[in-house]
Amino acid sequence: MRNHSLRILTAALAMTTTLASLATEAFGQIEEIIVTTRKREENLQDVPIVITAFSAASIERKGIASLEDVAKYTNGLILDEGFSKQDTRITIRGLSPTRGRQNVAVLQDDVDISSLAISTAGGSFTINPRLIDIERIEIVKGPHSALYGRSAFNGAINYITKKPGNEFVGNAQAEVGTHKKAEARGSISGPLLKDKLSVGFNAGIWTFGGFYDSAVSGGDLGGNNGKGLAGSFVLTPTDMFKVTGRVEWSDDHFDPEARSILNPTGTLPTPTSALGTSTVAPTGAVFLSTNVNNLSFPQVFGTLGTAKSFPKPAPSRDPRTGQDYPGSDRQIFRTTLRAEADFEAALLTSITHYGDTKALQYGDQFGVGDASDPLINGFQETNFNTTTKLFSEELRLQSQGDSALKWLVGGLFWNELAKQDSRSTVCASSGGGCAADIRATLAFGGGNYFPRNITKRDTHHWSSYLSLDYAITDRLKLSAEARYTKEKEDTTSPFSTSPSIIGCAGTGAPGGRTISATTGLVVCGPFGPNTVGPLILVSASAAQIATNPGFILPTNPFYLAAQVKSDFWTPRVTIDFKATDDALLYASFAQAKKPGGYASIGGGSTLADNVFDEESMKVYEAGAKTEWMDNRLQFNMATYFQDFAKKQVQVVVINELTGLPTTKTVNAAKAEVKGFEIDAQAAPTDNVSFTLGYTYNDAKYKNFKDVTNSVSTVTRAGNCTVTTVRLASGAQAQRCIVDYSGRRLEGAPKHNVQLGGELRGDMGGGTQWFVDAESRYQSSRFTTFENTLKVPSYWNVDMRIGVRTGGWSITTYVNNIFNDDHLKANAVYIPNWNISFLPPRNTVISGASALLPDKRQFGIRANATF
User: Fold this and answer.
1) What is the C-alpha separation between 488 and 566, in angstroms, rounded?
2) What's phi and psi for 165, nearest 5 deg?
3) What's the rounded Cα separation, in Å, for the pair 630 and 650?
4) In Å, how far are 329, 517, 715, 824 from 68, measured between CA atoms?
5) How far apart are CA 562 and CA 500, in angstroms?
6) What pTM, to 2 d.p., does this model score?
7) pLDDT tens-digit map of 8-19
């Protein structure tokens, strides 16, 4: 199907060119795009930075309404979702953020709205707002901390909203499509006092039913609905003073996700060295927690393939109510005030922002069947109630005019208060089904929800920055910029964020309970004859043990408090040369830093176990922006080398207190990305245009070794060098050193291709018809740094046909025209509790959890401006 799709697209584009050449002999030109990437208006082709820009017309034509849509139409930009809806990860230039802060800043009107999820990786709900009144989108690639702030480690996405002007303008949009899609938007703006005060209002409402149904209840999966409002004003009391204000509110609901889990169909061999006997006390014991009789470990490996490779998604009903889990809800309130004082020689700008996001996520994590089924003896639900409050104040002063030296100086204060109330639950039952265990535990607790685990994060950021652009000659320019950053992050987090219900009765082993003399925690199990060490440790009070013989209701054993400080410079130097009036050559060097942090779900019992260091990156880049044939062809390219130190990655270890596998963030020693990008546009006639984008990335770990006691990790790594470590208790233990050097970075395809073409014709009376096709190719990529599991390569083709005139347009579209069902989102390894902790293995078996791909969708959009 992939080759067939490519042949059809190529033939269609070739036919488009032939028809256009027959239709007209008039030459076309590519429209000039003005961007504000460097905080002043410039022609995109004159900026020595790799930039992708979407105009208002392009946003409307393509139907861009979210970050997913932006990624779909941006060469080399990838958006993934990991464990949950808040686990949103943006990849640019082969760098996927598995842990720690996002690598790409997300801004709205120059305000950083980026955040970091709690309890999972990803950027949280704040970075993907519904786009209801966007005038322009600018995506810049590479480190740009001085221009875009604290989060622009490897790029930035800036949404520029519509501003009311001195003319009355109204707009209405409506859209309907298959899979129960419907959307309506409206806006109106104009002057209340001509030349003094203009106001604007925007509103939108939308709904989508999703592409999949639940195998358990038949309910919709992957759909969403919501509504939003925005109001803005521009006040100009004098010629030198202007104030722009904006307030927005939105309310979204997301159905449970169309997620499926693929259980292992084969095994990977456990390295023989990992199954050796310990030479430290207790001597003779197997030093990894695995069954010595099993020399292989069940894993999902190879290429994941298509949606047909996975079972139909089967999320459980809520065992408390018997109804489907609600999914996720999000409310966003945001207000921005921008004040500008024009002193002719310089412009002083103040940008004040406050944002408040509330998000509830409540659903089945795995989706392997109804928890009420007695055969479902493993279950995990996500129950996150999260609030994120952002406040920032930025002041900047910049030069104006045409002098040889242009300068900009500024400062930023940014504060985030994030709080997550987690009632997430894990159930591992020895029989009878998890629903019965949960209901019994609820009955014991008086019908209340499970204990709360509250994580709080308070981040304070201070930075100052300077940018200088000096014209050495009319054609040679030198630019230097730098930001100095101080940041402090205070986190209070529970030791365990997922209380466990353990269906084991009585005392003693197997299948019973004892109390650990060293930790005071309850030991449940072991279930099988060959388990080394306790199966599960959970906490419980003496009263709970005495009065609840069948089940254990855990409480929080203790909380950890952490403070992580960062203090660094991030410079960037660029030199550009206007070789001709139509050719700009440039080269740059940049130093990027990403602060360290504290992982709220850590792999150890002490503060130090869960803290990770700063990540740094040096980037060398050279490029060219060129125009040909009287600007009927633009050809831009850039090549880059990204050198990483202490790259932040997420690994799996066995928690020393609980004996359970858990994630831990560490700093890999060294990684690098070599790549180049091509961006071309052609308008051979007034009636035809083409776009081409291509990105190549060679992304590898150069030196990455990790010490682990996780069997699943060791088998995926395929190697183990035995080492002796000293535990926090002072005891010695033996572990594996696994080596990932030379393996490809996770989530980084080698090839990305973007192809597009539009054919236009005149219908008379100022009305024009158009046919617009766009295709994206992405090569395969590994899901993790072990390089045992791949997301396959794919082609996706969209097509639009419509008519437009000065005041209105109607567009019919087909997304994923060939109904390609290869997996597109990066899958994650995840334990399936339903088949874990069972004899004779008694360990966690990893499956591959993935979001199923979008299906073909038909629709029609109408837009009217008045």
Assistant:
1) 6
2) -120, -160
3) 51
4) 18, 51, 34, 12
5) 25
6) 0.86
7) 444 344 334 333
